[in-house]
Amino acid sequence: DVSPLTLNRLCLYLRSLRRLEADGVSRISSQDLARRFNLSAAQIRKDLAQFGAFGIRGAGYDVSPLIERLDSILRLDRRHPVIVVGMGNLGSALACYLGFNHGSFEVVAGVDNDPGRVGREVGGFRIEHTDHLARVVRDSGAEIGVLAVPAKAAQQNYDLLVEAGIRGVLNFAPTRVQPVPEVPLKDVDLRIHLEELAYFLPPSDTD
Amino acid sequence: DVSPLTLNRLCLYLRSLRRLEADGVSRISSQDLARRFNLSAAQIRKDLAQFGAFGIRGAGYDVSPLIERLDSILRLDRRHPVIVVGMGNLGSALACYLGFNHGSFEVVAGVDNDPGRVGREVGGFRIEHTDHLARVVRDSGAEIGVLAVPAKAAQQNYDLLVEAGIRGVLNFAPTRVQPVPEVPLKDVDLRIHLEELAYFLPPSDTD
Ligand SMILES: NC(=O)c1ccc[n+]([C@@H]2O[C@H](COP(=O)([O-])OP(=O)(O)OC[C@H]3O[C@@H](n4cnc5c(N)ncnc54)[C@H](O)[C@@H]3O)[C@@H](O)[C@H]2O)c1
Ligand SMILES: NC(=O)c1ccc[n+]([C@@H]2O[C@H](COP(=O)([O-])OP(=O)(O)OC[C@H]3O[C@@H](n4cnc5c(N)ncnc54)[C@H](O)[C@@H]3O)[C@@H](O)[C@H]2O)c1
To answer: Is B27 an interface residue toward A (CB < 8 Å)?
Structure first.
């Protein structure tokens, strides 16, 4: 099994390699990759070797084959259909965003309990009512659920998603959701991205 | 200087410690903290010792003082006012979210170029027009800018924020923005959270 932090590093390597490929770079050394992340080249070699991805000694890694290898390790070489619960501001932004950026995640359905939103078309599908969640999960083939509801509605919607047969849940609501062992839950807090930026801010006159 | 990945770990430790504190835990060993992250206790001790945060041998770390120490290292012990450029779905969700969760980040202003949105009240302020961005940054004291505009408007709004005296920018638009050295830029892609979840999904019948 891979630790969450190794996984985080692999996702970052993949993002960086995709950029290199877009810029036309076909090979990169572990030193160059390390410099981009302020990491040691040994850490990168160790991470990649753990999955049998070995560079050519002295010449580095071939970018495209390494991308394919990481895609397969991270299970991104297959399609993951997503359902969004709560089609307000955040849910709508996610549905549109995942609609345009063709990657392995695609929002295939969205539900809400506000009758005023039900029936609207967003990101290529019509919003349905949460009362029909089980049917919508079955018909859409959704595998991952995203909670974009207010905090007080998060637990109940996680439980409904589990009952409907969802395989994993991403939670944006600022509250603790009690997961069941078979359905992994990951909390997202966008503040963590602000925290990482805040550290690198140049000093201000009031610091 | 701290590497982005060390910084990422420190933010994760802080989040975990805040949860422990909320649960009434006053002391934790590096082993217990390591188990939560699937890390080695040595890695945690090394990370924390780098900043002079030493545990009590055999007894671990006092949770509240360690939180204060990490808050100060990560510069979260002070207020960081934020301005959002692009008050559509994502921008509005962020403005409301940072309004309710009292932490060190607070959205103090928002601008948009759609006259239909200008003047609306969101998250405790009125949306202004991007033509007045320089004045709004000055009057609000905003230190961090968030780009929640379409990809084609990202670079020009980064440049406008720099001219207005912003100190750092968080970019959600799916495009490469060329930063200037004095104003750090961090890209955010919510897919990275989905990628980390996808790895942990239980196997399905089609895998
Ligand atoms: N984690 C983060 O970084 C982050 C960032 C922004 C917002 N948020 C959170 O995401 C959530 C959504 O934020 P938003 O700005 O989109 O709010 P919003 O009010 O615009 O959207 C919430 C939607 O959920 C629907 N809803 C409410 N109760 C429901 C229920 N029981 N079942 C189904 N749908 C229900 C509402 O009708 C609405 O459409 C909030 O909890 C907010 O705090 C988190
Ligand atoms: N990185 C991620 O994970 C992620 C997730 C969701 C959305 N996004 C991106 O965030 C951006 C916003 O998404 P959204 O769903 O809120 O879209 P939206 O259309 O709801 O909002 C965009 C807002 O920007 C305003 N705008 C357009 N051009 C502008 C300009 N030149 N100056 C100022 N304001 C301008 C529009 O009037 C609108 O209010 C998009 O680029 C989207 O791709 C990224």
So the answer is: no
Residue pair A84/A94 in contact (Cβ under 8 Å)? The answer is yes
Examine residue A203 and state whether it is found in any structural domain, yes or no.
Answer: no
B2 contact A CB<8A: yes
| Per-residue pLDDT band at A141 (split at 50, 70, 90) | very high
* pLDDT surpasses 90 at B63: yes
d(CA B49, CA A131): 52
Residue B190 has pLDDT above 60, yes or no: yes
Domain match, A87 and A185 both: yes
Question: CATH no. for residue B107?
Answer: 3.40.50.720
Residue B198 lies in a domain: no
Which of B8, B143, B200 comes nearest A8 by C-beta? Answer: B8
Q: Which is more confidently placed, B16 or B88? A: B88
Note whether B40 and B131 are same-domain residues.
no
- The residues near A116 (Cβ < 8 Å, ≥ 6 apart) are none
- Mean pLDDT, range B90-100, rounded to an integer: 91
The domain in which residue B94 lies consists of: 80-191
Last residue of a domain, one of B51, B73, B95: B73
User: B7, B195, B205: best mutation site toward chain A, by most A Cβ within 10 Å?
Assistant: B195
State whether B193 and A204 contact (CB < 8 Å).
Answer: no
Residues B16 and B66 in one domain: yes
**Interface contact flag, A144 B198, Cβ < 8 Å:** yes
What is the rounded distance in angstroms from the CA atom of residue A158 to the CA atom of residue A164? 10
Whether B52 is covered by a domain: the verdict is yes
Q: What is the mean pLDDT of residues A113-129?
A: 95
SS (H, E, C) chain B: CCCHHHHHHHHHHHHHHHHHHHCCCCEECHHHHHHHHCCCHHHHHHHHHCCCCCCECCCEEEHHHHHHHHHHHCCCCCCEEEEEECCCHHHHHHHHHHHHCCCCEEEEEEEECCCCCCCCEECCEECEEHHHHHHHHHHHCCCEEEECCCHHHHHHHHHHHHHCCCCEEEECCCCCCCCCCCCCEEECCCHHHHHHHHHCCCCCCCC
> What span, in angstroms and rounded, lies between the C-alpha atoms of B33 and A81?
34
Task: Identify which of B83, B84, B89, B90 to mutate to test ligand 2's pocket (most ligand atoms within 8 A of the CB).
Answer: B90
d(CA A100, CA B152): 14
Which pLDDT value is given to residue B102?
A: 66
